[in-house]
UniProtKB/TrEMBL annotation:
Protein name (record): ATP-binding cassette domain-containing protein
One Gene Ontology MF term: ATP hydrolysis activity
Keywords, comma-separated and alphabetical: ATP-binding, Nucleotide-binding, Translocase, Transport
Lineage: superkingdom: Bacteria
One Pfam family recorded for the sequence: ABC_tran
All residue ranges annotated as the ABC transporter domain in the record: 1-231
Amino acid sequence: MRVSVGGKLIIDGIDCTVPPGSLAALIGPNGAGKSTLLRALAAVEKPQSGSVSFDGSELYGMPRRERAKLAAFVEQDAATELSLTVEAVVALGRMPHLSLWQAPDDASRTAVTDALDAVGMREFAGRDVTTLSGGERQRVLLAKALAQQARLLLLDEPTNHLDIRAQLSTLALLRSVASTGVTVLAALHDLGLAAAWCDSVIVVADGRVVAAGETAATLTPELIRDVYGVRATVFTDPASGRPVIGFGEL
Ligand SMILES: Nc1ncnc2c1ncn2[C@@H]1O[C@H](COP(=O)(O)OP(=O)(O)OP(=O)(O)O)[C@@H](O)[C@H]1O
């Protein structure tokens, strides 16, 4: 796939695959092209060439509504200026499943409540979304994507604004969503979170994939040094058995 924005080639021949029903991290330095790639995968940004196929279906040729049933996208710091309640924002995720003017059915109401529960925001259901903190808003936007019940979930920095506990519970939630068969791809800046929680990583730099594959085999100190120019040491957390990464300057 090749994607240009504003006349500039940003994604230069990326070819990548995310294993179905798994949690994958999209990582890479600032300006590498992560957001642009996610926007292209979500069909928000049209590539000059290339295609995005999911489960045998080509996402670009598809009517918007059908695509929204397949793929949900949470953009980085998506604006929430509309004065709506949290519940109404999450209910927007149900739109692809309802016909025009159709009142929410039981399945939609349950999906909204379940999504609010999943992100721990049920008690905020009646709050105006414009009054929320950055972290609360981030969780509401994740709930909206969950309510969409798509089989592909694309997230741009889903842990932005979140405190450490909320970061861990978000990654745990994404893992459990993936375990139900949903394919999850999340751009993450925190390599520690990617290492500890994701099944695989796609590493981009300068609009190209420089490495991709199973997390432990791919996210090595050598790769981190080459891509980010820092020293990294991988430890094992004695409590969880998961990898922990320490960083230092070269
Ligand atoms: N509208 C635009 N016009 C020109 N250049 C753009 C435009 N949008 C993005 N870019 C450039 O494309 C490159 C990739 O941007 P992108 O936002 O995809 O990177 P990223 O990996 O998500 O970065 P970050 O980690 O900083 O969020 C950057 O150099 C950015 O300046």
